[in-house]
Every structure is written in C-alpha cells, then in structure tokens.
C-alpha cells in the first residue's frame, strides 16, 4: 500500500505505549508522528499544501489552454461575452453532479480505498426517490429518501470493507452490480418521471444569475475542503490512507473511520442523485452510467494518490471542470464522442505519468532524509 | 464511567430507533403502483374471416428479459394479443439476459413441440442455430425484429425499420423547413448509443435531409437514458446559439432533452422524437413544448407477430392478399405522429 521504506512508528510488534496512557487526541498524535517521520522539516500541512498548490496551478494552466483552444476554433461564439458567460455556467452545471460525487470519492481514495459503486448508488437513490410512493410525500420526502439511501448503501460498503475485511475493489464492484440490479427491479426498468416542481426547479432556476446546481456544488466542495483540512476527521483520513498501521498505533479507530468514509461517499451520491434527477426531470436504473470512472479519473488528475494518503478537494474539482470543459469543447466544435473519449484517456495517462514522476522524486527525497536522521 | 456508558446507550437507542424508522419508511417507498398499463392489441371481436376461431394452436414465445420500456411493451403486447384469441394457447419461456440463457430455454420449448414459436433473439447470429433446429423439427419460427442471418432459420421475419425511422424524421423536418422557407437551416441531432441500429437511423436521416439540400450541423450521441439526453442536449444548445430543428432518436432520452431545452429557456426551434412513447404522444397532442412530432418504432410488432404466427399455424393467409399463405417478410413502416393524427395513436403509445 505505502512505499517500501518503513516509517519509524510502524514496528511489527505490539506498541510499547504505556498501558494507562492519558487520553490524547488521536489525530494530533497522527499528525505529530507524521511530523516526526518527515524529519520535522516538512509538516503535513506545508508539504501537502505546497505540493498541491503547485499541482493545482498546473491544472489551471491546462484549463486556460482548453479555453484558448475553444476561442481559437470558435471565434464567432467566443466573441459574444454573453455567450461566454452562459458557456461557463453550462460547463459548471455539467460538472456539478460528477463534482459532488468526486468530493466523496476523493475522501475514499485519500483514505486508501476506492469506491466503484458511486454511479450505481446514485442510480439507486435516484430511482428510489422517484417511485410513485416516494413522490407522494413531496419534495422533502424525495430528498430524505435519496440521502438516506445513499448513506445506507455507503455504510453497507463500509461495513463489508472494514469489518468484513473485503478488498474495497471487490466489495464496491459487487455493490455496483447489486445496486443497479435493485434499482432496475424497483423501477421495473422504466424511466420514472419526477412530477415535483420543487425538485425539477433545482436545475431550471437561477439565483442572482447563477444556477442553483452550481451553488450546491460550491457548498459541497467548501464543506469537503473544511472537513479535509480543518477537522480531525480530515486529518485522520490522510493518516489512515498514508499508513493505516501507524494510524492504528496512534490510536485512530481505523476500521470505524474507513466505514465512515464510504458512508460519506454514499451521502455525496445521495446529494448528486437529487441533482441529476432534477436535471433530467426523471430517473432510471441506467442513469449515471460510468460516473465511477469519471469521478476516479477527476480525482487522479487532480493529484489524489490512488494508494491513499494524499489529495486535495480543489484539485479534484479542477479535474472535474477540466473534463467538463473537454466535453463542452468537443460539443461546440461538433466533433464525435469517440474522439472526445480518446482525448480524455490521453489526459488521464499524461496526468498520472506526471504525478508518478513527482511522487517518486518526493519519496526518494524523504527516504534520504530519513536515513540521515536515523544515523 | 457509568454516566458515560448510559449516555452512549441512549444515543445508540436514538440512532437505532431513527435507523429502524427510516428503514420502514424507505421500504414503504419502493412501491410503484400505477394504473394498469394498456397494451396494443388488435381486437378479435368479429367472427368473420381470419378472426373466426380455427384450429387450436400452441404459440411459443421467447424474448430477452425486459430491460427498458420498449422491451417491456414487447412482452406485454405478445401476451395480450394471444389472450385475445380463443384458439391460441400462449407458452412464454424466459428469454434471460443473454443468448446463452435464451438458447437453453428455447431448447426446452422446442422439446414441448408447440405449433409455432415467436422469437426475438438477443443477437440473431447467436441464436440462429437453435432456430434452425426448430425449423428442421417442423416447428415454424416467426423471427421478431432482430433478424437471423440464415434465411432457413425462420418462416417469417417481422421487424421495424431503423433506416426508415431516420428517413421519416428527415422528411418531416425537411418539409417543415421548406414550407417555412428557411434557407440553410441549422439542424441538430441527438442520437442514441452508438450501436448499429443508431448508425442506420442516422444514415436514413442524413439521406432524407439531403433530398432537400440540408445537412446536420451538429450531432451528439446520448445513451438512451434521460440523464445522458439532458447532458448532450445542454451541450448541443450551447454549441448552436440558433437552431431551426432537432431530431432526437429516442423518446425516453427525450425526457432529458426536453428538460435541457426548458432549462436553457430555448424555444426558437421544433423537435422530432423517436420510438413513440405515451409521454411523447401526449406532449405532441398538448402542443405545449418544442416537440412537434415523433417517428415510430413500435413494439406493437409483437402483437402482429403473434397474430401472423396464429395464421401460419392454422395454414391461413392474409385476408387482403391473393396468396394463400402469410408472406415471408414484413417490415413495418416508421410512421410519423403529429398533432393532427396523435389521437389515433393513443392506443399504440408505450
């Protein structure tokens, strides 16, 4: 999972902690131990933040290049500022649903896991909240149902992975198949139309010129950023993903934390289900097809490490926006989906290659520092 | 310590209670009771000609498990049409979710020796051998919609016309724009999943538009789902600030396409749908959206297949034709449903 060099705290024997140690905040300990691990020169804060900021700057550069390509290929459209503003909103609306899913996915991946079932959970929550029976409870009932279904399915994933000791890939793959199956049997393979004007208005309405969906995306991203960077939950997530054994020895309940991460991902899927149902004014079992791949790809090009322990919410958001911009760019130029998918694939490979290169040099540096301090 | 654990247990109780409550509420929410869906059948009321009860026949039926509205309608229609005849015994076997499953259940059906079998294969190529086997055993096969490559594998092929769907849509749009006198119109197309039938539909659309000297300006492909329809339509609208007409291949994904059009607040164009769902027909009749027409690819073909299977088994021909036997191939025309004729299609929407 983590790199080959063992961290000082990760000894195979039981910890030599005093039996009746006074209660310490586990996250503080984890951060402190990691500080010690990285020779005290680089704190998790600065090290992570500085690295992430540089990477995010690179993503903004890519985004600017994409917009430039659009402006060069379609000067007639980009000449109209009104159209450009509308296009920015269209890109953000396109990014909104996948963006919310990606926030949850980023947490799971930073925590050392993977969630392949996000698209399926989204579809199940969407279908469950648009059944005739649920719709009879009105918009509040629909929103409640979508959120609770998302959290519950996420919890099932989490329990299977952390307490049932299933590999995340397998557990969530099984959930992908099962959740879509359940969605298909609930909906009887029909498209369920949402008749709630409140729900449908979420995608159709704007507040101060900006679509409500974009506000929701902004709120979820902000909440995700605060939780990851300013709470013990977030710091524990990084500790658990970076080195689960060290995190456990530092007193973090790794299993419970892992379970909660999948529940969080499920919650994000529930929110996204409401958004997508609103956009399409309907739901069906096949909706949100392959969103898991979109979310993982966005998190990866956003700089989240697939093996866990590192990642930023802002980077993931930029990843989602870059993919949405590519889709938009190909649409306004009338190019085929096939070409678009090839370019997307190329960008993922390029991003991972760049990331691998940087990661290697960083770990090598850390390893060298560790050796020097040890001797 | 005790204080702490009591707090914990109370919290647990509250959480547990809330969880149980939510679970009960949610399970109550899976119900999807809607008024019984109507099916598309030909009434067998009058006892003249071919409708008159004849020899008692057993009709076998096999089609893929319903994975969307259209396939669901195929199953319902076949069953309802068979029930309308007093001289037909209907034997449906589970078509399963792949060719392998369908081959094995078809094998058991053949062993029961029905008079005739109606088959909609998962893939004509993969089920061809079993159909051939049935024909050799003296059980005629009526091949529904997806054709077997081997002509010997079926007595009758009855299918829809994907190319013709595109042609109908192209002619409707071409004629409307010509009548309006629009020169060099901007035409958008929202296709379905890029599988052979979608390619055929698009080819027909292109060919029909070409006869008016028009071309498709921008084509996006969705995935037959409403959310993908919304996504692609939103991008199409962004790409074309002014549009004259749009053809959307599928009415199910059309729910999302119409949502995107409403969300973008656009109405300067008209749209043609595809397939002929009940929702689309209602919208065309109400005439309160950009949807002005839809071209059919109708699951009523299952009803017709059962009717023709009955005639073949009873050795009768089609009343209006001179020949004594049912023809070998029937390709349904893709009909155009507009506001004017929508009411006569009420019964055929699915």
The averaged pLDDT of chain A comes out at 84
Number of helices of chain B: 10
- The main sheet of chain B orders its strands as 2-1-3-4-5-11
CATH superfamily of the largest domain in chain B: Response regulator
Bin the helical content of chain A: over 70%
Work out the number of β strands of chain A.
Answer: 4
CATH architecture title of chain A: Orthogonal Bundle
- Count of DSSP H/I helices of chain A: 16
| Overall pLDDT of chain B | 87
Named CATH topology of chain A:
ABC transporter involved in vitamin B12 uptake, BtuC
How would you describe this protein?
The complex is a heterodimer of chains A (375) and B (350). Chain A has 375 residues and is an all-alpha fold. Chain A has one domain (41-366): Orthogonal Bundle (ABC transporter involved in vitamin B12 uptake, BtuC). Chain A has helices spanning 26-37, 44-73, 75-78, 81-110, 118-128, 132-135, 138-162, 168-187, 197-204, 212-230, 232-242, 244-249, 254-280, 291-301, 313-332, 337-374, and strands at residues 192-193, 206-207, 210-211, 282-283. A two-stranded antiparallel sheet of chain A has the order 1-4. A two-stranded antiparallel sheet of chain A has the order 2-3. In chain A, strand 2 (206-207) and strand 3 form a beta hairpin. Chain A is globular. Residues 1-49 of chain A have low confidence and may be disordered. Chain B folds into two domains: 55-160 and 299-316, Response regulator (Rossmann fold); 162-296, Response regulator (Rossmann fold, 3-Layer(aba) Sandwich). In chain B, 43% of the residues lie in helices and 16% in strands. Chain B has helices spanning 2-28, 69-83, 99-111, 124-136, 162-180, 196-210, 226-239, 251-263, 278-286, 301-313, and strands spanning 57-63, 88-94, 116-119, 141-144, 156-159, 187-191, 218-221, 245-248, 270-275, 291-296, 329-331, 336-338. In chain B, the strands form two sheets. A six-stranded parallel β-sheet of chain B has the order 2-1-3-4-5-11. The longest helix of chain B has 27 residues, at 2-28. Chain B is globular, with a radius of gyration of 25 Å. The mean pLDDT of chain B is 87. Classes of the chains: A mainly alpha (375), B alpha/beta (350).
């Amino acid at each position: 999972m983590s790199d080959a060099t063992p961290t000082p705290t990760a000894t195979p024997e039981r910890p030599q902690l005093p039996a009746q140690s006074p209660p310490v905040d586990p996250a503080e300990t984890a951060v402190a131990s990691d500080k010690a691990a990285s020779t005290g020169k680089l704190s998790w804060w600065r090290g992570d933040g500085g690295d992430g900021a540089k990477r995010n700057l690179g993503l903004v550069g890519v985004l600017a290049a994409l917009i430039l390509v659009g402006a060069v290929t379609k000067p007639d459209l980009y000449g109209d500022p009104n159209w450009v503003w509308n296009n920015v909103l269209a890109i953000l609306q396109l990014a909104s649903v996948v963006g919310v899913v990606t926030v949850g996915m980023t947490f799971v991946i930073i925590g050392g896991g993977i969630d392949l079932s996000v698209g399926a959970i989204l579809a199940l929550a969407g279908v469950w909240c648009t059944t005739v029976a649920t719709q009879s409870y009105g918009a509040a009932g629909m929103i409640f149902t979508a959120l609770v279904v998302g959290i519950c399915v996420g919890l099932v994933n989490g329990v299977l992975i952390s307490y049932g000791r299933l590999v995340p890939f397998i557990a969530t793959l099984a959930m992908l198949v099962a959740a879509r199956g359940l969605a298909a049997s609930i909906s009887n393979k029909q498209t369920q139309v949402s008749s709630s004007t409140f729900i449908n208005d979420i995608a159709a309405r704007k507040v101060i010129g900006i679509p409500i969906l974009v506000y929701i995306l902004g709120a979820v991203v902000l909440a995700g950023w605060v939780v990851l960077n300013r709470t013990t939950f977030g710091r524990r997530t990084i500790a658990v993903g970076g080195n689960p054994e060290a995190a456990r020895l530092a007193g973090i309940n790794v299993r419970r934390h892992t379970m909660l991460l999948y529940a969080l991902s499920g919650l994000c899927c529930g929110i996204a289900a409401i958004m997508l149902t609103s956009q399409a004014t309907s739901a069906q079992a096949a909706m949100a097809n392959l969103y898991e791949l979109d979310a993982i790809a966005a998190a990866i090009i956003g700089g989240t490490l697939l093996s866990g322990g590192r990642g930023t919410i802002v980077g993931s958001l930029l990843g989602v926006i870059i993919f949405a911009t590519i889709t938009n760019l190909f649409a306004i130029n009338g190019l085929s989906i096939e070409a678009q998918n090839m370019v997307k694939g190329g960008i993922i490979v390029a991003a991972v290659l760049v990331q691998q290169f940087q990661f290697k040099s960083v770990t090598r540096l850390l390893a060298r520092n560790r050796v020097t301090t040890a001797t | 310590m005790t204080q702490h654990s009591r707090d914990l247990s109370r919290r647990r109780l509250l959480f547990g209670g809330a969880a149980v409550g939510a679970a009960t509420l949610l399970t109550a929410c899976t119900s999807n009771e809607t008024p019984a869906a109507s099916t598309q059948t030909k009434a067998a009321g009058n006892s003249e000609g071919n409708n008159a009860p004849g020899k008692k026949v057993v009709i076998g039926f096999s089609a893929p498990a319903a994975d969307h509205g259209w396939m669901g309608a195929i199953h319902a229609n076949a069953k309802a049409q068979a029930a309308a005849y007093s001289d037909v015994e209907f034997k449906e076997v589970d078509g399963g979710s792949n060719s392998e499953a369908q081959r094995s259940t078809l094998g058991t059906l053949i062993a029961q020796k029905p008079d005739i079998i109606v088959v909609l294969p998962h893939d004509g190529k993969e089920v061809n051998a079993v159909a051939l086997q049935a024909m050799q055993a003296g059980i005629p096969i009526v091949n529904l919609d997806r054709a077997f490559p081997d002509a010997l594998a079926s007595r009758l092929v009855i299918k829809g016309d994907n190319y013709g769907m595109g042609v109908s849509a192209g002619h409707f749009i071409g004629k409307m724009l010509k009548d309006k006198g629009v020169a060099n119109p901007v035409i958008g197309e929202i296709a379905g999943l890029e599988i052979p039938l979608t390619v055929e539909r698009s080819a027909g659309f292109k060919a029909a538009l070409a006869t008016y000297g028009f071309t498709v300006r921008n084509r996006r492909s969705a995935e037959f789902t409403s959310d993908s329809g919304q996504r692609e339509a939103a991008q199409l609208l962004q790409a074309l600030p002014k549009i004259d007409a749009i053809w959307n291949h599928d009415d199910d994904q059309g729910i999302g396409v119409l949502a995107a059009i409403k969300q973008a607040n656009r109405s300067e164009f008209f749209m043609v749908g595809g397939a002929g769902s009940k929702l689309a027909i209602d919208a065309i009749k109400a005439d309160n959206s950009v949807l002005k027409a839809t071209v059919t690819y109708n699951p009523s073909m299952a009803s017709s297949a059962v009717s023709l299977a009955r005639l073949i088994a009873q050795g009768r021909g089609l009343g209006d034709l001179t020949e004594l036997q049912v023809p070998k191939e029937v390709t349904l025309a893709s009909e155009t449903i507009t506001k004017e004729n929508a009411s006569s299609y009420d019964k055929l929407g699915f």
